[in-house]
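Before surveying the methods themselves, it helps to consider a single example record, giving the amino acid sequence and backbone structure tokens:
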Amino acid sequence: MSRSLERIPWWRDRRVLPWIVQGVVGLTLLLVIALLLGNLVRNLTAAGLLLSWRWLGQPASFDVAESLVPFDASMPYWRALLVGLVNSLRAILVGLVGATLLGTAMGMASFSGNGLLRRLARGYVEVIRNIPLLLQLLFWYFVVFLALPNGTAAFQLPGIVLSKSGLYLAWFSQGFSWQGPELVNEVWRAPLRLSVEFSALLTGLITYTGAFVAEVVRGGIASVPKGQWEAATSLGLHWSASMRSVVLPQALRVIVPGLNSQYISLAKNSSLAVAVGYVDLYSVSETTLNQTGRALEVFLLLLGSYLIIDLLISAVMNGVNQLVQIRER
């Protein structure tokens, strides 16, 4: 038998053929990529736009309306891109927290014994999920926030003022003294102010992603056997205590993997901030591209930044998923 196997030609040997096919396919892909890169380099060289990063050190010559990082027009382009990245991360992080809280509340409300609350939660999910996010952002910006009054007519709550110029919140001022919003010369001032653009973007991201998170949470809760509810009730636990102490801990192993994709979607959807005038990474990159003409470099930075953000979110959620699975055992 072994002699007959040794006599099989290599082009008929099933142990060799898969490696040959994979080698040919891999070599073909490398050749195609090399041809495409070579063509790109030739075209960029002919246009005088060969890949270069020296422009990052040149003055940006434009201002950024909203920034957590000190910036002015005399600073270089890399600083402007950093400002945009920080603004994007700000919207993403706050949006993740808000969408998680809202989605968890709506998902739990789907199992409430209160019929009205249950129907409201389901109605919210069905309506928000079926309207494009871009339209929702435009609605919140033009119809809601820009229609708010200013001055004394602004919407006021203890420690909160919502007006056409922004959202003003009470916060600790210098000396750690609690200071709320105050009206000075018909202009609201507060230690913490969120611009209308940021508020509209954040509201849209939270309400939109929260609807999808609610479905993930609802599915996770539904996966818990009905006997667990009955056991918690037999112990005299209230609905909220049963949900918090018995049902949700068991549902996490189903909920966490589903949250990963929703969080990544929120990070990518944050690039729609340009629709409401919020200066994020995409907006700064677009201005940089218009001024420098370095399309390839700008898009490489832009794509790489969002890729890294999404990979970090995925890595964190995978770690959380492992912790949940360990606790489940």
